[in-house]
Specification:
Length: 241
């Protein structure tokens, strides 16, 4: 995806025109059988490995965390259920930095950085099509646009960036609505689209953009942020810092 080229084109267009820790509701629970993790939407982590609070746990098909044993795929977990290697608990980052933006990784989600290093994708591990793409790109022209023409000019940049992304994603997308929302990280421009996937099913796609200094932050949500969030807004509010 040529994200940087799209953003530079949008900024150039505006200039030319003008010159002419995150809190999740999911939680650990225990009954007479054992420990399990219940997601915000009432479902449970089950059927394999999931990262929770920076540690990896194996949940069986019934949703119970295995403890003090060897998992079916021959890894060791301690008394708390955490994955260990030679007795050492294995951990990973609970937050990932993209440019100057910090992204909190929700419990139970996998993440991967893109080849350009300007974004990450987050996905649920339960086979759902739901996923989130977070991009953060530095571009000096953003500050120039703001200084010369004010914050309102950045909305034009945002519109062009999102249009460029939708054109790159595919032709089977149409805009439903747009709005401006205020989160703790500032004003975000929000765009709701409908897309048709390869199976011919219509799915929702939402774009969020935000400008901080010389950075544009873009969040793309496919089919909803997922089981730990009641809304896409909640993901942006809690996970983008």
């Amino acid at each position: 995806m040529k994200k940087r080229a799209i953003i530079i084109m949008a900024l150039t267009g505006v200039l030319a025109l003008a010159s002419s820790f995150c809190s999740f509701a999911g939680e650990w629970k225990q009954d007479t059988t054992g420990w399990f993790y219940q997601n915000t939407n009432g479902s449970y982590l089950s059927g394999g490995w999931y990262w929770v609070d920076g540690k990896s746990y194996y949940f069986n098909d019934r949703g119970y965390c295995l403890t003090a044993t060897t998992t079916p795929d021959n890894y060791t977990v301690d008394d708390s259920g955490a994955w260990t290697v030679n007795g050492e608990v294995q951990t990973r980052e609970a937050e990932v930095t993209v440019s100057n933006t910090r992204v909190v990784i929700p419990n139970g989600y996998e993440w991967e950085r893109d080849e350009e290093g300007t974004g990450i994708t987050l996905n649920e591990k339960n086979g759902s099509d739901q996923g989130v793409l977070v991009m953060a790109i530095q571009e000096d022209s953003i500050s120039e646009v703001r200084d010369l023409f004010g914050e309102s000019a950045l909305k034009m940049v945002s519109d062009e960036v999102v249009q460029g992304l939708t054109d790159e994603i595919g032709e089977n997308m149409f805009k439903v609505s747009s709005s401006t929302k205020s989160f703790s990280t500032g004003a975000w421009y929000c765009y709701s689209y409908k897309a048709t996937n390869d199976q011919g099913r219509e799915v929702p796609v939402e774009f969020y953009t935000n400008f901080v200094g010389s950075e544009i932050r873009i969040v793309v949500v496919l089919e909803g942020a997922g089981r730990e969030f009641s809304s896409n807004d909640e993901f942006v509010q809690n996970c983008i810092r």
